[in-house]
Design brief:
CATH topology of the largest domain: Creatine Amidinohydrolase
CATH class of the largest domain: Alpha Beta
Low-confidence stretches: 487-493
Largest sheet: 5 strands, mixed
Number of domains: 2
CATH architecture of the largest domain: Alpha-Beta Complex
Radius of gyration: 27 Å
Amino acid sequence: MSDQPRRAAHDTGIPDNLLRFMVTGWATPPGTPAAPIEGIERFAARRAALGAAFPGETLVVPTGHEKTRANDTSYRFRPGTDFYYLTGNTEPDNILVLDVSANGEPAATLYCEPNPGKTDATFFTDRVKGELWVGPRLGLRQTAERFGIATKPLAEFAADRAKAPSAQTRVLPGIDPALDAPGGPAERDAALATHLSEMRLIKDELEIRELRRAIAATQAGFDDVVGGLAAARSERDVEVAFGARARRDGNEVGYSTIAASGPNACTLHWTRNDRRFGEGELLLLDAGVEADSLYTADVTRTLPIDGTFTPEQRAVYELVLAAQEAAFARCAPGNDFLDPHRAAMDVLAGGLERLGIIASAADALRDENQFYRRYSLHNVSHMLGLDVHDCAQARAETYKFGTLRAGMVLTVEPGLYFQPDDLTVPARYRGIGVRIEDDVVITPAGVDILSAAIPRRVEEVEAWVRAAAGSASARAASSSSSSATATVRRPSR
């Protein structure tokens, strides 16, 4: 804990008598052992696998700190992905150190904040870490019990690190600026980040279970949005509805919700969500719940706000859907990671030709041209897991130019975006943006579409929106009727 009280400008001083009074008269903590986290053996196995790759070295993996939002307020803390992957710990400020023997066996130490309890004045004077301000920390003993890792006080980390030869130490870069090498990550440190990303390319059964949980919560969030769509007036209403579900059923949204209506759907990462709906428009909702285990879903549906696609909207939507089906067909172990993308682009290019937007699909698909990208913009897949764009530090030859393997979880998300001012597009299609995104796991036999229960096909989507609108109208009518029935006239006297 901090030796000096951390006070805000509006705090008054603390007299010595108050200090003495505050640290007495508290019940002794029960000392109940902390229950081990679920999957504790899997976290240990991951540390062992990491150590085997770096024999005779010291590996430093920090989780990071709370980040300032404004002045003395912070964003809600989310642990560093690799730190969590190796420990399961969600507290801030911790540092994992693996001292790996020459034969690759790691001795793990978690450097963390002690919890001195209410005998130390910082429990009420330190507004950043004090127990009465932000709640108790696990402390050294309970951290060791919960995560199965030996612990030491965070204050001892610097001295212990100074004893380790720098030539044999790697630090995961980009998490804690105080630990990063000056001028950017050294090649050794970058290699540690790469190896951890490549470890996460294949998900185990526990990880896939958590992804299913995140997707189930996401489906409930989409149902919430659709259920309130008839009464919603703006993109902000959609964001609020989904965000409430994310906090209720999970840790948080996995990324900033994209609730893009009308022409905003042509902006890939529209997160301002400040536009009012117009008549006959589409809503592109790209959103995912991050489970309490920090695994996140990433799903997109494009919805007709009034329940019916116009002929032009339907033509674009069905083209994107056909591209997604073609991509699913190429999701199988042994295929190139880019095979689903290539299959989807073939379909999109052919459709763009039929819609009169490009003259020749074959010409547009040539490597030296790629004209279809004016309207599709992005690849159709990325890895998914603890990060929405997971495994980002993996080498291209193992990821983008690698092959699909059983246990990989990825998105399949083709899209078409016809900008309102694009004169190469017939006027009737301008301002239409459609993306359909699902999360899949590669299996030994092919692919399992994890988000398949969320409606995708035109008739299913229209029925989904209309049914929700009908239910909302019925509830409103019932509420109105109940209010009228409950009105009782007082008898005259």
